[in-house]
Amino acid sequence: MSDNTFVLQNSDESDNPVVKIEFSEEAKNALQEQLPDVARAMISAGMESSGMLVDGIAEEANPEEDHVFH
């Protein structure tokens, strides 16, 4: 996965992401070190608005580890 791509996936389904966000090079350059935080906020907001937020899933997300949210 590129360092512009962030995914949320079930821990038992590594091949089938629930959500995938891919930033352009322009966005990556503009956001720099804030990119993981923006991705986390986007995924969290989307899950919350869709009613999918599971206890603590947004808080457990760690964008520093392969950009995969579990």
How is this structure best summarized?
The protein is α+β, with helices and mostly antiparallel strands. It has helices at residues 25-31, 35-50, 57-60; strands spanning 5-8, 19-22, 68-69.
Mean pLDDT over all positions:
77
Low-confidence stretches: none
* Percent of sequence in beta strands: 5-15%
Sheet/helix structural class: alpha+beta
Number of extended strands: 3
Q: Counting H and I runs of at least 4 residues, what is the number of helices?
A: 3
Shape: globular
**Helix fraction?**
25-40%
| Strand neighbour order, sheet with most strands | 2-1-3
Radius of gyration: 12 Å
Distance N to C terminus: 15 Å
How would a crystallographer describe the biggest sheet? 3 strands, mixed
Order of helices and strands: EEHHHE
Overview of this protein structure:
It is a single chain. Helix content is 39%, strand content 14%. The mean pLDDT is 77. The protein starts with a strand and ends with a strand. The protein has three helices and three strands, in the order E-E-H-H-H-E. With 70 residues, the protein is an alpha+beta fold. It has a three-stranded mixed beta sheet. It has helices at 25-31, 35-50, 57-60; strands at residues 5-8, 19-22, 68-69.
